[in-house]
């Protein structure tokens, strides 16, 4: 309940207690508070012990699934799936692990290696020649439609 209370909060409570209650009555209030907490803990432990003695054998079949559920909630999602669905065998997840998949030879790497064996020297390869289309000389006369390349350039 108070697991997230830090030392800063405790110091603030003590300072407020000194101001509100006063330094004379503060030790007595702390003792009373301590006694109340101790009495509550004792009563809770006695109630647990009494219930366990009365209904202990009847609730054993309920305790096992609850304890198993508690262990599953403490696990991560992958461990919980592995334990419940795959009985602890996590070899199925290895097929989806990207680190292991990338470490293995893939079909693409094999194909590139095969192509590298049969590839010729890049210096020997010739580039295909492109033929330029020559335009007829433009005399400055507009072509059909009143358009001329001389107007653009």
From TrEMBL:
Gene Ontology biological-process annotations: protein transport by the Tat complex
TM ranges: 6-23
Subcellular location, record wording: Cell membrane; Membrane
Region (Disordered): 104-153
Organism domain of life: Bacteria
UniProt function note: Part of the twin-arginine translocation (Tat) system that transports large folded proteins containing a characteristic twin-arginine motif in their signal peptide across membranes. Together with TatC, TatB is part of a receptor directly interacting with Tat signal peptides. TatB may form an oligomeric binding site that transiently accommodates folded Tat precursor proteins before their translocation.
Name recorded for this polypeptide: Sec-independent protein translocase protein TatB
Organism: Corynebacterium kalinowskii
Upper lineage: Bacteria, Bacillati, Actinomycetota, Actinomycetes, Mycobacteriales
